[in-house]
Specification:
With about 400 residues, the chain is mainly beta. The protein contains three helices and 27 strands. Strand 10 and strand 11 form a beta hairpin.
């Protein structure tokens, strides 16, 4: 027998079928091999198929009938093999059973500092489960220009592509994704966007966190605006999140805002009622005061930036990644051991008492001031802490 001769041939070879289809495959042994139909059997993915599904179509041809096929177990195809009686492999075929692709959805894009464009999308539901699906992201300038094909895939995840250059500003683009497999092609809806509307940037740099004098419950946060956009006309808003040293969770979701206090200059006071402090600043405010913190505690702080209204764009902008964590600690409290902080229903009473003390102090020490600035508030906090220390040393209420 010639070494190049194939022992047998399976027909059809490597078919592609819809889920639920039926198939009759035949195995025909070469005349050069002394094998008959009764010497053959079939396996599918290593499992022997029942003899009741076989039919001898000639002295050396054996068929097998497969009904209501399920989707392929693997995207490389299910293995249908014709064997000789002793288990030898005579021929094989791959069965590709699945569904046509569904159109991709949820296309989202962003541009890093207006220098490039990255897009992500979500695949259809079941079509990708059984058959390998290819995705192609295409784009063109609206109203004119030819279709372009993105080349750098998987840069931001499985379903993503990166366009590194040659993009125009002030020009709307049409972007879509084509999905194709052995059973067909599906095209997403077309997304139209302007690069200026999807700009994101690097995280804020030079983030510094420091104490506010001897105030036990406050930290000052300062940062720099995105340097990559310094030559562009844009506005920015910032978010701050922080956590204590012994917690690994950044708690996000708060809605309280850092706000500029009267006479506060570039600084601002932040409520500590929620874990996330949000700075919505349409100017160039690059600082914030965190208040209501625990004394003697290490805090990790992160800041992120949202550049928006670039050259007058009306879109909301896209948040950057968070900056690297920066740590600082609040001053340690010097209250005597055994002291207790107000809890539960006592907090409102304590707040009213401290506000009364504050306005009494202002009347006594700052008569004639028309505005209550952050510096004045800080002076009162220091006075209040000193009075607490004196009271604790004396051991009696003032």
């Amino acid at each position: 027998v010639s070494p190049a001769a194939d022992p047998a041939v399976i027909s059809p070879q490597d078919p592609t079928l819809l889920i639920g289809s039926s198939l009759v495959a035949t195995c025909t042994v070469s005349p050069d091999f002394p094998l008959k139909a009764e010497d053959l059997y079939w396996t599918l993915n290593g499992r022997r198929l029942p003899a009741a599904s076989y039919t001898a179509l000639g002295p050396s041809t054996l068929s097998v009938a497969l009904a209501r096929l399920n989707g392929s177990r693997q995207q490389s195809g299910d293995n249908l093999v014709c064997h000789s009686r002793d288990g030898g492999i005579l021929a094989g075929s791959c069965l590709y059973v699945g569904l046509p692709p569904e159109k991709p959805v949820n296309i989202t894009c962003w541009s890093k500092n207006m220098k490039d464009l990255t897009c992500k999308w979500a695949p259809g539901t079941e079509g990708e489960t059984f058959l390998h699906t290819n995705y192609t992201l295409k784009y063109k300038r609206r109203w004119y220009g030819q279709d372009n094909t993105c080349q750098e895939y998987h840069t931001a995840g499985t379903y993503s592509c990166h366009i590194p250059k040659d993009l125009a500003l002030f020009t709307p683009y049409e972007i879509w994704v084509e999905a194709s497999n052995r059973l067909g092609v599906a095209v997403s809806d077309v997304v139209m966007l302007d690069i200026l509307d999807v700009v994101t940037t690097d995280p804020p740099s030079d983030v510094h966190v420091s104490r506010v004098g001897d105030l036990e419950d406050q930290l000052s946060v300062r940062w720099s605006s995105p340097p990559a956009l310094k030559d562009f006309l844009f506005q920015a808003k910032y978010q701050i999140q922080y956590r204590v040293e012994d917690s690994s969770e950044w708690k996000v979701g708060g809605h309280r805002r850092c706000r500029r206090m009267a006479g506060g200059g570039r600084g601002s006071g932040c409520s500590h009622l929620v874990p996330l402090q949000v700075v919505d600043d349409v100017g160039n405010q690059t600082s914030c005061r965190l208040a209501g913190l625990r004394p003697g505690t290490v805090y990790f702080v992160q800041v992120r930036c949202n550049p928006f209204s670039i050259y007058g764009s009306k879109k909301a902008g896209i948040w950057s990644d968070w900056s690297n964590p920066t740590a600082a600690s609040t001053p340690r409290s010097e209250r005597v051991a055994g002291g207790c902080d107000p809890k539960g229903g006592e907090q409102n009473t304590t707040l009213r008492r401290e506000l009364k003390q504050f306005f009494g102090w202002v009347k006594k020490h700052a008569y004639g001031c028309s505005n209550l600035g952050i510096k004045l508030y800080d002076q009162w906090r220091v006075w209040l802490q000193k009075s607490h220390k004196t009271r604790n040393q004396v051991g009696k209420e003032p």
